[in-house]
C-alpha cells in the first residue's frame, strides 16, 4: 500500500494484525535512515509545533513498518 497520500494527515489505519488505530503516520530520519512513525493526532500536532527538529532523547517514537498497514482512510481534510 502506498502511504504517501496519508502521511501527515489524521487517518484511520487497519493493521495486518486486524487492529484498527486512529492517528497520524509521518516520516522522521533516525541516524540518517528514514523511518515511519505513528502517533495520535494531538501528539503529532504538539511535536510539529515545537520544532522541525525532534529531540529523540525526549520523545518516545512509535516506529511502524509500512508493510503492516493494510488499509488507510483520511478523517479530515488537509
The helix-strand sequence is: EEEHEE
Which strand order do you get reading across the main beta sheet?
A: 4-3-2-1-5
Q: What CATH architecture label applies?
A: Roll
Question: Share of helix among residues?
Answer: 10-25%
Q: What is the CATH topology assignment?
A: SH3 type barrels
Q: What sort of overall outline do the alpha carbons produce when their principal axes are compared?
A: globular
The average pLDDT is: 86
Question: Total strand count, please?
Answer: 5
As for the number of domains, it is 1
Strand content: 35-45%
Largest sheet: 5 strands, antiparallel
Runs in which pLDDT lies below 50 for 5 or more consecutive residues are none
Distance between the termini: 20 Å
Task: Indicate the structural class.
Answer: mainly beta
Number of helices: 1
Put the structure in a nutshell.
With 78 residues, the chain is mainly beta.
Provide a descriptive summary of the structure in words.
The protein has one helix and five strands, in the order E-E-E-H-E-E. Helix content is 13%, strand content 40%. A hairpin with a 2-residue loop joins strand 2 and strand 3. It is mainly beta and 78 residues long. It starts with 10 loop residues before the first strand and ends with a strand. The longest helix is centred in the middle third of the chain and has 10 residues.
What are the main properties of this structure?
78 residues, five-stranded antiparallel β-sheet, 1 helix, mainly beta, SH3 type barrels
Task: Set out the fold topology.
Layout: E1 11-15, E2 20-30, E3 33-39, H1 41-50, E4 62-63, E5 69-74
Antiparallel strand pairs: 1-2, 1-5, 2-3, 3-4
